[in-house]
Amino acid sequence: MLLVKSTQETLSMKGLTLNCLGRKEEAYEYVRRGLRWHVYGLLQRSDRKYDEAIKCYRNALKWDKDNLQILRDLSLLQIQMRDLEGYKETRYQLLVLRPGQRASWIGYAMSFHLLKEYDMALKIIEAFRNTQTNLVIRESGKREDALAHLAKYETQIVDKQALLETRGEILFELGRTEESVTVYTELVNRNPENWAFYRGLENSLKPENEGVRYKIYTDAQSRFPRASTPKRIPLSFVTGDLFRQLIDKFLRNGLHKGVPPLFINIKTLYKDPERVAVIEELCLGYVESLKEHELFSKSELYVLKAKLYKHAGDNEEAYRLMDEAQSLDTADRYINSKCAKYMLRANLLQEAADMCSKFTRTECAAAYQCLGKWGEALKKCHEIDRHFTEIIEDQFDFHTYCMRKMTLRAYVGLLRLEDVLRRHKFYFKAAKIAIEIYLHLHDYPMSDSDKDNMVDAEQMTPSELKKLRNKQRKQQKKLEKEKEKAKQEQEKKEHTSKKQAETDQDGPKEEELIPDKLARPENPLDEAIKFLKPLQQLASDRIETHICAYEIYSRKDKLLLMLQSLKRGCEVDRENPQLHVFLLRFLKLVLDQECGKLCHTQDVAQLNEQFLTRNQNSVLHRAAAGRMMYEVNKDPATQAKALQLASAVSKNLTGVTPKNCREVLEYMCRGDFGKCEAEARAYQEQCHELFPHVPSFQLTPAAPNQVVTNGNLSS
């Protein structure tokens, strides 16, 4: 019996050793022969197959239910996968086995805290003197008890700023404003640049008028003359001559110091027309002063001018100006990164990559998408996805560390941050781009170059046919050389990777992202769903999530999921133009009971008229109503009216922007209103008059029968 056990352990240890050397297949084989479920779980965990690892640990516990190491490993996997009920159960078993260990009690209390069972968590850690206890008390709604707890254990709490912040928040919630004023004043003295401390001080003091409110900040300025926050915050509420005086001083100081984010800092002030007029007057005066006296830094004004051209739709001129700003201060990382983004918007990919490729994967993906380089765009999107995945994987190292070091408040904050990580705007943008590209690749799969060059040989003359054959032979030879070269490079990479794996085995090696392979997926819709799932979980409050979901499921003919997407979309933004189009198309497809409840009518034309009546002054809403009017009614007169409705351009309408007008032009060019080349060209001319700097609206005299969409000529 001892011999069998020894052999099993030897085989398992050999498997672990092979795994560390990167020889995965051999490792799994030896562990299987060793019949050690725990070790098999370790291999699965190293490959980030956490669900499979959990199954292995549960099987291991059937044979050895009181094994502390297996239970600890299982609890780590459960909290990583947010199996909170399972985590609570495992932590209880650890507590039963080791009731004398402090970590056993804290881990068990933590499980109840994460499950929001605060009363039970309080009972478990009643004697635990730490700010974690206070967090549990506060979240359970017992503010007086939380305040008393802070006072009792103040000397033992190391994070004094967190202590003051918590005390100030609780005092304010209890209505004890005089005491909260004292606390927030102390916090301002600790950090005069923290906006939240001033906000807490204002809320506690409740100033009666603008003068009293302004005095809060003049007092802070007298104590901290070098701090910028007490000078900036008053700009958002003072008015009249005082605003002119303060903004003039603020702008001059920023321009003298050459602060790049100066105009970003005051962007929120542009919501008020009166403030905008004052800022405009002052800036124009600065321009005249610069021309005459040359007192201010030039680079900051180039940045502002570049932004103005960007919003006017002329990305090339915006890039030129930003490049000029960058050349005046090549060491400024902010200007460098902004310049790279502007290069990408102007589709200058190589220049942007040379500038600072590490900042700009999202913008780079958007630029490749604009150029129709689907594989390159998808590569950037997958790189972003892997970056977020890596952040999520890195939290695994903190589960044991935080429990051991007792940094529990920070640990809970980390867990909650990781839970919503993919809600970040950069991930959302990358996921949306990837979904759009996969939808396009589903509708228009990439074809081989031979198919792209096919022509009707029967209609060609012998000389033309001979030239074609020669051209095809040259292309074939070129392709063969490229394939051979790619094969050699791939073999070289595989050799290097294998060699590296022997010395560096830290998690599973990711598959290489090859643009050409990414542009030819076996199932584009399944790939799109991988990017959609995180958005549905974490960005359900954004209408674009449900628009993307409907686009995918409509192509998979999943009627219930289509209906689900529409219902969720209606909860977010019932008046969204694209959602309106999908809603009516769905009604045409299936008129069932659930859809009737959703729309209160089954008459598509009537629903479209109601939608138009509610949104008759919006460019995109008129376009959506026109598209559906054209689809629903085949009467030529009505279809002509639909085109006229969608193509109206007037400054009296809302949403007349370069982006929205380009979108309407796209609808016309791709056939949503039938053949309408002349109308599209007329619409393009009208848009050019409104937005002369936008390349998409600039006509090409040499090709009178063509219109420009997204910078490309389309017949």
Strand tally, please? 2
- What ranges have pLDDT less than 50 throughout 5 or more consecutive residues? 1-6, 449-459, 501-505, 702-715
Mean of all residue-level pLDDT scores: 81
Proportion in helices? over 70%
Instruction: State the shape.
Output: globular
The count of helical stretches stands at 40
CATH fold assignment of the domain at 361-449 and 513-539: Serine Threonine Protein Phosphatase 5, Tetratricopeptide repeat
Structural class: mainly alpha
Largest sheet: 2 strands, antiparallel
For the termini, the CA-CA separation is 81 Å
Radius of gyration: 32 Å
Which CATH class of the domain at 361-449 and 513-539 is shown?
Answer: Mainly Alpha
Strand content: under 5%
Side-by-side strand order of the widest sheet: 1-2
| CATH architecture group name of the domain at 361-449 and 513-539 | Alpha Horseshoe
Description of the molecule:
Among the domains are: 297-359, Serine Threonine Protein Phosphatase 5, Tetratricopeptide repeat, CATH 1.25.40; 361-449 and 513-539, Serine Threonine Protein Phosphatase 5, Tetratricopeptide repeat; 614-715. The protein is an all-alpha fold and 715 residues long. The protein is globular, with a radius of gyration of 32 Å. It has a two-stranded antiparallel sheet. It starts with a helix and ends with a strand. Helices cover 72% and strands 1% of the residues. Helix 16 packs across helix 18 and helix 33 packs antiparallel against helix 34 (577-589).
